Amino acid sequence: MNLRAFSLLAGLAFVAPALFTAAPAAAASKSWHVDRSVQINARPEILMAQVADLRNWNNWTVWNSEYDPDCVWTYSGEPGQVGHTMEWDGKEMGWGKLTLTEVNPTGGVKYDIWLMKPGSDANKGSVTFSPVEGGMQVTWSDDGQLKGISKLFAKKIEAVVGADFEANLNKLKVITEAQEAVKASEEAAAAAAKAAEEAAAAAKAAEEAAAAAKAAEEAAAAAKAAEEAAAAAKGKKKK
Predict the structure, then answer these.
(1) d(Cα 88, Cα 115) in Å, to the nearest integer?
(2) What confidence tens digit (pLDDT) does each residue in 195-222 have?
(3) pTM, whole model, 2 decimals?
């Protein structure tokens, strides 16, 4: 996705000039790895709605229509399911494709990503989360292999990709925590409405019970009066 750095590892064809600083051969690496984490106060389903539906990545990643207004995104497969795919082609973004390979409704997604065609190797990545005190720990990880001169720039790639991952996760945090606040407010309102409804039902039941008790008391009094009247009538008859 981040062609400013990913294109470097894909072949150095579109890399920014700032990445081509001198690097000693000793720094060469056959692979690179990036992971960044942030704590987000949002439930898994809210996070999954953003992460597992690739159409929403334009909302919270720095690789979006603002970064590349001419980029064309194409989506296929079912959002939230393995095989869901996003493909893009733009002046700044270049060409690329990302496909979900694992989907865990409570734990995030894993994906394969290609940055050059045809027949390029896929890099592996994931956006996963797990519960911690106060919310969810969300971690974005990505791994790739380097060839040729690109091996000299592993640390540069990790730094650039890492910075974008941090920006993406922070924006994801803002969006999902706002959604969590709305959801929590709606649930609190629903709970209050339900409590009020139950209280009204309880009050009505109490009122009906009181009325029934009063009716029973009146019926008992009437029965007693009738019994006394019958007894009085019987006594007069004996006389």
Answers:
(1) 10
(2) 888 888 888 888 888 888 998 898 889 8
(3) 0.71
